[in-house]
Amino acid sequence: MAVYALGDLHLSFARPKPMYIFGPGWDNHPQKVRQNWNRTVSDGDLTIIPGDISWAMKLEEAAADLNWLAGLNGQKLLIRGNHDYWWTSIGKVRAALPEGLHALQNDHFPWGSLAICGTRGWLCPGEEGFNSQHDEKIYRRELLRLQMSLESARKAGFTEIVAALHYPPYNRRGQSSGFTDLLEQYGVKICVFGHIHDAGREYIFQGRRNGVTYRFAAADGVDFTPVLILEE
After folding, report:
1. 28, 67, 192, 227: which has the highest count of C-beta atoms within 10 A?
2. Fold of 2-231
3. pLDDT of residue 21
4. Which residues in the chain come in under a pLDDT of 50?
């Protein structure tokens, strides 16, 4: 029962959006994902998809992308990304998911002795472009969502916790944030994230700090191959 992560799939089967315009690595990327995924992940495994799953604007338009995901090996746990406009209320999303797909929002997902927690996240203070008037409110709201998720795992008695965010939980200088504070406070073992596609990903901190191991899993940054997070 291994746990993998692969984010930023940017699927668009209902209304095709050519991703190769973002670089040659994106050419035919669904085929790359499917091949690498099914070669890496077994049916008894879980893959966390930390956001930017589909370019669809409405839930019904996302059905083709979700059904495609359902056809890949193993169970999948979805986190909302900043481009997942199709993601409406969590109740509607969960009701629309095909078998083998699960959605996480404000709660936790049990996987053996593990609890998977998470939220979308947001730009952190100190990040280039962070606007105190606009971004601070969203940042604080996402902190509350992460705390709700972590608290639900704690109340359920879990001590082994993996967290997933779409945005990095710190700015590109690697400075601490409210997200990293919460991850440390709740004893999170590993935190996975994506979102970054430009050259800045080369400077993203990965590794262990204050008890938390940080792993980057945006698809184009990991050769469109699920990243092994841990093995149960």
Report:
1. 192
2. Purple Acid Phosphatase; chain A, domain 2 (3.60.21)
3. 67
4. none
Write down the pLDDT at residue 22: 77
pLDDT one-digit tens code per residue, 112-142 = 999 999 999 999 998 888 888 899 999 999 9
Q: What is the three-state SS of the chain?
A: CEEEECECCCECCCCCCCHHHHCHHHCCHHHHHHHHHHHHCCCCCEEEEECCCECCCCCCCCHHHHHHHHCCCCEEEEECCCCCCCCCCHHHHHHHCCCCEEECCCCCEEECCEEEEEECCCCCCCCCCCCCCCHHHHHHHHHHHHHHHHHHHHHCCCCEEEEEECCCCCCCCCCCCHHHHHHHHCCCCEEEECCCCCHHHHHCCCEEECCEEEEECEHHHCCCCCEEEEEC
> CA-to-CA distance for 77 and 119, rounded, in angstroms?
12
- The residue extents of the domains of the chain are 2-231
Tokens, residue 101: 């797909």
In angstroms, what CA-CA distances link 127 with 140, 145, 146, 210? 15, 20, 19, 21
Q: Where does residue 55 fall: left (phi above 0), alpha (psi -120 to 50 degrees), or beta otherwise?
A: alpha
Question: How long, in residues, is the chain?
Answer: 232
What is the pLDDT of the chain when averaged over all its residues? 94
What distance in Å separates the CA atoms of residue 125 and residue 154, rounded to the nearest whole number? Answer: 27
